Fold Transcriptional regulator, TetR family.
Amino acid sequence: MGRPRHPLLSTDRIAEAALDLVLATGGFTITGIARKLRVQPSSLYNHVSGRDDIVELLRERAMSEVAVPADDPGRPWRDVVADIARSYRRSFARYPQLIPLLTSHAVDSPQAITMYDALAVTLTRAGFTPADTLRTISLVDSYVLGSALDVAAPDQPWHTRAEVGPELAAALATGAPKPERADDAFEFGLAVLLRGLSS
Amino acid sequence: MGRPRHPLLSTDRIAEAALDLVLATGGFTITGIARKLRVQPSSLYNHVSGRDDIVELLRERAMSEVAVPADDPGRPWRDVVADIARSYRRSFARYPQLIPLLTSHAVDSPQAITMYDALAVTLTRAGFTPADTLRTISLVDSYVLGSALDVAAPDQPWHTRAEVGPELAAALATGAPKPERADDAFEFGLAVLLRGLSS
């Protein structure tokens, strides 16, 4: 048998095409994916149920490097939250353009549920009420996603022609080149956050 | 004199067209803006110097409702930072789709500089070193932008078919409907952050 001239359609190829479109244009449409893969839009529905399904495939890409530590009741909760936050940021920082798309859709991917479950178990065990567990998960989520966007910020986050005051100029002068600046700021903020949650 | 059939080209109309394109497709091109405004791409260059200029026009839109409080050395620094963070989030929450575009370009708009200057003055006066002033500005930035994205999250941030553990289920059950949930989580996180910065 000869090889097919085009690779077979699969959820993987659909996700890849959607990702390419988001990276190139900021969004995707079913028609755009079909055109890119040289298939009829209707063929896509043999593999995905629709747009929401494709968003979840993209969420899985963004989360593919999130490492959830093995459950260990003896470990300080701060270390578990910090580990999750670090790997969550690193994983999403690869695809900053996906972030608004993912945050505007309901979460329905197993990777995401596994991560949020681990956070909820850890915080509950540490004595957080259910309401504060939800708020703390939102806090970690917002901080991590904002920080993932900061990883994609330019090396010089400010134009030199901007006239800044002496306090801001002094602060900016301390910034290391990327990615060190973003990493350093993230670790500082993570420590602040965990301190604020503990007191 | 008769009125021109099309409104005159202006930076405002260029910004509006760019914003429409980002909201519809996630991004914009000079060609796309020209097509939308029915002008030649070269005409745009009488008003803007290029793509970076247009991104700054979009930043000004996103920041147009940021209120920087009048400088008052007698006011607690936490209150000033909280005020800025609240209005910054509210202003950006109107345009979540702009966020990755804005964070991937160097800041060069007067509104943004005014806000960052106010943060730098306030933090420096409170005794933060220049390096910690920069880190704290990054922390506020990341948290606010992530929280602005959370405002655009769906009312039900989770699909019901996702199987979640009992701790996460209990936490999710405490969530008020949007926008109360997002507002409540933001205020909780802001308090955590300010507590962590103070200790």
User: Anything to note?
Assistant: The CA atoms of residues 132 and 138 of chain A lie 10 Å apart. Chain A has ten helices and no strands.
